[in-house]
Amino acid sequence: MIKLVAAVRRRPGMTHSEYAEYVEKVHGGIALADKLTVRKYVQNHVLDGAYGTLGDTGYQVTLPRDSVTELYFDDLASMGRTFADPYAREVIGPDAVNFSDQPSALSLLVEENAAEVPRPGDGRVKVLHFLKAADAITPELFHKGLLRAYEEVLADSSGPARYLRGHQWNTPLPGDGMAAYFGSTSEQPAYDAYSALWFDEADALTGFRAWERALADQVEKHGALLQPSLSYFLVTREVVIFDDLADGGIAA
Q1: What is the Cα–Cα distance from 110 to 107, expressed in whole angstroms?
Q2: Mean pLDDT score of the chain, rounded to an integer?
Q3: Are 5 and 69 contacting, i.e. CB atoms less than 8 angstroms apart?
Q4: Range list of β-strands (E), the chain
């Protein structure tokens, strides 16, 4: 199973609420009319977020986002069939001009892995934490060091991990991230991983900030792994357009 991810901001002249309504009801409906080979389609509507660090110029190049799309496929071949299909090329793709600032779109192809948390549950708030590796560090060292830091924070059930209701780790895969399909033409930073974290609504931001601090402390022990100025997080509401994985559906 692979996942294609697109972080999008709304087109000029559109409010965030107009954008959210359109991508869920109209664009989501267009995708639902013909699922092609997509096994699961999730929209994450941004409620809040923070970009970069104080006093760093990275804030000027990290663009705000209004939603993050997650599309699940069985493999690269099945994903290729979707984007070669006339319905994707002539109906779904062209609809993006109605809601997306296409040149700023950011996309990546990832593999998703779930991690055990001390107190799993149905957290209503999903935080997406996009991570940019430090310059000159290899992907292998980055992922190894960051996963070790994650494991150390998760192992302390009395620490910030107690806030988590779920956790997924997403690492980039080689292959086409379909930037051209989403209309991306700007030079956005290439992200080296992102995590999805679920929290109860009452303590989502408090819980994430505690998690963020603990992770930074652990990361520091393993060397300079991250560029905080280009990393960011989004507090989102997850909207599942369809999920044939849960329903036992078969890809076309």
Answers
A1: 10
A2: 92
A3: yes
A4: 2-8, 40-51, 67-73, 106-114, 125-131, 164-172, 193-199, 232-243
d(Cα 28, Cα 47) in Å, to the nearest integer? 19
pLDDT > 90? residue 186: no
Q: Which residues contact 89 (CB under 8 A, 6 or more apart)?
A: 83
H/E segment holding residue 132: none
Higher pLDDT, 1 or 58: 1
> Does the pTM of the predicted model rise above 0.90?
yes
CA 201 – CA 226 distance, rounded (Å): 28
Quote the tokens at residue 154. Answer: 């998760």
pLDDT at 249: 46
DSSP codes, 170-223: EEE-SS---TTTTT--S-PPPP-EEEEEEE-GGGHHHHHHHHHHHHHHHHHHT-
In a 3-state reduction of DSSP, which class is residue 152? helix
Instruction: Tell me the mean pLDDT in the region 111-133.
Output: 95
pLDDT at 190: 84
